[in-house]
Backbone:
């Protein structure tokens, strides 16, 4: 197969738009669709063809890449796309869908003779825009060459977790990784909120841990977003973080373990969303520490 492919990108939010842009810049023919067309239209300046329907977007595509809100959304859009799907095409499913949903999506792929790849990604807006995502992928080894040019265009590295996308091994790893990311994000907000409550200058905390095992680049990056009021545009939105946190809790319950931190984190993120911060960066979970707005 040629390295230059026709790729359909379904879902052009923060992550999907960046992935579509990098695919176009890599020389692939990109057909993009989004439920809200206005989010897809800017991609036309990068050479992408904007489709009116999922069916139009996937017609004749070598690879279909889905980056939608959740598993049900991905299944709904693929059902709309079904009449245009080419038997034998590859489906790179990058939505963080949850374990149960992956099985349903893989079943759809079998019904429509698609080669299914469970391929969620690790990274936020900036690495997505730079084509530096970490791709976690599972799918048949003998079909990987068909999607390698796509994965290489959107990510800096691909970690293969298995040969059966339906088993959800990549999604399972994504949930484990996200459990750490979300716990760390919530902890950043609580550190700053507690500092405020106790009259402690946060810089004193950062100086105390500087260069030691407790220091983290991620801590400092998210803290700066909060302290500088740079929560929009989001790297990863609160509403999406709520969805992922709930998938993590459900996965733990499914496996017979209690994830108390993840459960509390999901509630905290949901509270921030209810306060009006849903479209801001997930670091805005900081505001969930306050009944109203924090004092200046």
Residues:
């Amino acid at each position: 197969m040629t390295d230059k492919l026709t790729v359909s990108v379904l879902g052009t939010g923060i992550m999907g738009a960046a992935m579509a842009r990098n695919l176009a810049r890599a020389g692939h023919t990109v057909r993009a669709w989004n439920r809200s067309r206005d989010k897809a239209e800017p991609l036309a300046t990068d050479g992408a063809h904007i489709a009116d329907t999922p069916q139009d977007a996937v017609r004749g595509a070598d690879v279909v890449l889905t980056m939608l809100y959740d598993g049900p959304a991905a299944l709904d859009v693929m059902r709309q796309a079904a009449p245009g799907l080419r038997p034998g095409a590859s489906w790179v499913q990058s939505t963080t869908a949850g374990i149960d949903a992956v099985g349903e999506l893989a079943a759809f792929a079998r019904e429509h003779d698609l080669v299914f790849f469970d391929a969620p990604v690790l990274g936020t807006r900036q690495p997505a825009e730079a084509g530096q995502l970490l791709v976690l992928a599972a799918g048949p080894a003998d079909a990987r060459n068909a999607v390698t040019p796509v994965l290489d265009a959107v990510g800096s590295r691909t970690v293969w977790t298995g040969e059966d996308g339906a088993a959800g091994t990549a999604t399972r790893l994504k949930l484990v990784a996200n459990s750490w990311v979300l716990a760390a994000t919530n902890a950043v907000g609580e550190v700053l909120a507690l500092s405020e409550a106790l009259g402690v200058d946060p810089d004193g905390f950062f100086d105390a841990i500087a260069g030691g095992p407790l220091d983290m680049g991620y801590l400092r990056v998210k803290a700066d977003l909060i302290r500088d009021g740079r929560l929009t545009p989001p790297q990863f939105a609160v509403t999406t973080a709520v969805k992922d946190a709930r998938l993590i809790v459900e996965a733990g319950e499914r496996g017979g373990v209690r994830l108390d931190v993840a459960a509390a984190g999901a509630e905290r993120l949901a509270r921030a969303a209810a306060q009006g911060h849903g479209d801001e960066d997930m670091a805005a979970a900081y505001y969930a520490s306050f009944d109203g707005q924090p004092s200046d």
